[in-house]
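Two records follow; treat each independently.
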Amino acid sequence: MGRIRILPDALASQVAAGEVVDRPASVVKELVENSLDAGAGNLEVIANRGGISLIRVVDDGSGMNRDDALMCLERHATSKIRSTEDLDGIRTLGFRGEAIPSIASVSRFRLTTREKEALQGTEVVVDGGKLGGVKDAGEAPGTTVEVRSLFYNVPARRKFLRTEATEFSHLEQQVRLQAIAHPEVGFTLIHNDRPHFMLPARSHLLERIQGLAGAEIATRLLEIEPDGDGDIKVSGYIGGFGMGRSNRSLQLTFLNGRPVEAAPLNHALREGYHTALMKGQFPVVFLFLEMSPFAVDVNVHPAKKEVRFRDGHAVRHAVTAAIRRTLTRAQTTVPGQSVRPMIPGRTEIPAPPRWHQVPLIPEREQTALRNDWASLPPAPRPPETSRNDAPFPPPAATPPAPLQPEPQAEPENSPANRPVTTEDFRIIGVLGKLYVLMESAEGLVLMDQHAAHERILFEQMRNRMTAEGVPSQRLLVPVTVELAPREFDLVQQNLEALQKLGIGAEPFGANTLKIDSVPTFFRNDDPAAYMSEVVEELKRASRQIASIRLGEDLVATTVCRHAVKANDTLRDPELQRLLADLLACELPYCCPHGRPTLIQLSYGDLEKRFGRQVP
């Protein structure tokens, strides 16, 4: 007799459960997705001991009849798909038909359900995968699934569960994700018989975000204006300049209403923010993508945690463009709110490689860049925008009489409806030979003169590099570098971008590059190691922006060395010019390293600090 055997059904179900259900949060995710697919308008999730002892999900969806209630306990039984064509274009959250039987095989399981028009419902009890009983039930319309003693019959899996608090934190995060993805559905979460949060159905996403993340975060978010062109629709809310966190807990991405994780989306967010956040910080993002279900594969992982795009580059480009468009348009402004750029955390920036320390431009031009900066022609003004889109809009509330005159209706051509200029600020002085103190209609504004000059020089030098390229020097003896096949193909696709960066490279046999010239700033004895760093940067950059991004780290490091310093004394005309050039920049509110250039203390902030009553 052969050694290969077919596994018993009970054991096969437990093996499958290991792929779908690994902790209580996985159970909640699968049950909530089924409820949403059933058209639930309100969902209640009850958990005890982090979901280890009890999970109960109650919905008011369509419910099931008795035949369907029994059939849903069979493996690969589903109402979501019927054919291969359905699998190629999945529009529901669940579809595999594995969740319910997998959960029932590793718990004490009870399901009660009733269709809205039915006179009575059905109750099904399963104990460790064995059907315990079926009977009539007088439940309300909808479905209730109760899971007790999770993994009681799989000790090997149960011992890997974490503490009660840890398991509940994962469970809560799953409910939060679904609540944000579906603001039109009411969510209630109860833990150990205590309400954790109760979220009524909302018509607007921002209200749901405020209910979960708090008003402090919600009021600082910038809305992404949907782009009507293209097959990929990007919407949602993102944090402004400097609004970062040390982890990805608020970096949430959704695809067709499904919380997803995908490398192209993470890369796109990094590219979109780029210099708008400090290194090591992650943006606050509530990003929603809508695209054809035929252009994405959600059947990659049994738990549906990951997705795969048919055209990942197009997705990266759409998300990157939406982020950059939002940051450029709105800057740090939230409509109807005061402008208060966030102060990033003090994350240490890793020391750049040795060749980054060498100036990008020749030595003879550095002195001219510093000494003649004030004599350069004025930077072009940004296109005119309405006062509501300006970086520093008029205050929503009238400050006290001594500080602000009574508001009056302004004609269309009045100063209140023109772009913000240096005339909107009155320079008061300089604090500590670094921070320029200015008065605006909103209150007190502080400008970091070093960070501001960094941003100005960064954009000037980046534009010059994009237009003219980087000077290069020939190597006395060309160097050959052997790459992996995938890396070799990537470099071949970006030879033009490398040429702009001052790198002369060409194929020299199978998977081998010959390097015969390097940038003039190159001072490393190992061109092969330098090329490896360039290849890693190419991997992180998309095809559309590779030539732009490759040299920006070099530019940022160079301008940091040559911008005005903390102890440099600037005269009033130089301060005025510094402010004017900063406001003319593409992204004026952060330096190339993501640190803020302007910080505002509104009159409301000052009144709170001094204990004054706000009128």
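The next record belongs to a different protein.
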Amino acid sequence: MFPCTDAFVIKLDPAGNVLFATYFGGNGSQTVASAICVDASGNVYLGGTTFPNTVSQPDTFPVTAGAAFTNVADGFGFVAKLNSSGTALVYSTLLPVSPPALAMPQAIALAIDTAGEAYIATTTAGALPFPTTPGAYQPAPPSYPYGSGVVAKLNASGSAMLYATYLSGNGLSVPQGIAIDAAGDAFVVGFTQAADFPVTPGAFQTGYFPSAEYMEFVTKLNPQGTGLVYSTFLGATRNYASEVKVDAQGGAYVLAQGGAELSSGGYLSHLSADGSALIYSTYLPTTNKFDLDLDSAGSAFVAGAAGYALLAASPGAFQSGFEGSLANAYAAKFTPDGESAGATYAGPLQTGATPLIAVAPNGAIVLAEQTSVFSIYPWLTVQNAASGEAGTVAPGEIVTLRGYGIGPATAAVAAGQAPVDQLGGTQVTFGGIAAPVFSAQSQQVTVQVPWEIAGQTSTEVVVTYNGGPPAGASASAPVVVATAAPGIFAVANSDGTLNSPSNPAKVGGFITIYGTGGGVTNPLGITGGLWPITASLATLTLPVSVSIGGTNAIVLYAGSAPTLESGYFQINVSLPSGPQASSAVNLVVTVGDSSSVAVPISIQ
């Protein structure tokens, strides 16, 4: 007897240690998880397919009381929610879908909103009608019986569909990816053979290519599931998985396999917010196994499998070339305008593996495949030195550069309080302007972003070690320049001592916040210089607000930090009366339209 196939879920800590591991499935022939999401509380959502038990004993696939669909005859899909410790189901429901014919792949694509509602995209064959909801955009399937797309939204308790609609034409239509924006619009991507797949006037591509075996589609469905915001063909494709991510401006990023003319490789395309035009589209010359993620700045991170050394890695990359005889993972970063911003190999991989990618706020990436997980800084990465956040830089900000071979093996540290233009053989420039160096070692260099880049929207950071090649090394990367990118180093109480649980601030007093990335000051700071003690101090030019425990505090001063290096800012704040005695509360600094990562402070 062959063993049944179950899905499994494993949670690793940042060091790669297992926090929990659990199987998920029943006594049916196969349970496959094709999607996983995690909410802000750490709950885990799974989407996938399951085939019920066909022998005499009852099927044991786990469903919960009150779930939307609990009968194994209801269908072959499922959505389940595990608690944050992996010890119990919050809910588990079947989905009324059946596999498409023609040996086409079936998967459940999944996205989660802030309310814990699950958005689902998949395919079902006509033998099992999908129960649509009143007012649905497409309440009934087309006449084509072999595979129609469906999109649905499940409530937070898993007990009912908030909406359910078909999304298909008269031909095989297979949604493969789904993403949502802050308004609850659902972005669905996949492939179709239907020339009459629904598209909207003014969309980027409204005609089906006559010679295409399949066409990629991108559809934006309104929050109620009753109509299309836009729907467009994108290009010829093959029947491999495609993905979609959405940035803060509502732009869709689509990763897909190319058509027959691209026997190996695919494309990454960035659509405008209204679906009428491409911001960029670029060829990806790796195999047909891809994955996609975005960072907060709108940079796209792509992972694929490379069968041989076809592509170049960036200087300072985690792995500079192809290794071994098996396929390697290949990861690349593209800026919001499509410029190449870094690339690395990682591997070798298990044969046939599809590498998955996730980018952390600090610019590190996780690459996972069948037998390996890599958590790495893949190429030259620029972080806020206080918060560790990556993605943008601000004029004057103190930043940490992560990479490989960018400094001496033993750390070199500037002798005085002010940084120097060269340290331990390491030099750094932003847009050709020297960046003063606080410390330098092989994989980490801390510098000040020159104030002189103010007014730019992007620039290039270049790190040179020991004069660069051939004897030394160098690495470079484009970076987005923001007006502000605040991060918090420390918080001091009114007596000048550092705030901590054992040394809380006093209710009715004030605190001083020290950070970096506050943006331009008036007068402008001096790159590499110290803030002077003068009667008229430099102040931050952008509006500043401080939230403490969710309550807006009174900002008494926001500007230079006298005697400290000019990359630091100082904000003096009067404590609000809201927080309770001895409480630990979160503090957030907002400069312009950019907010810091929350840091805890103690008040008594």
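Discussion point: The chain has a mean pLDDT of 90. How would you locate this feature using only the token line?
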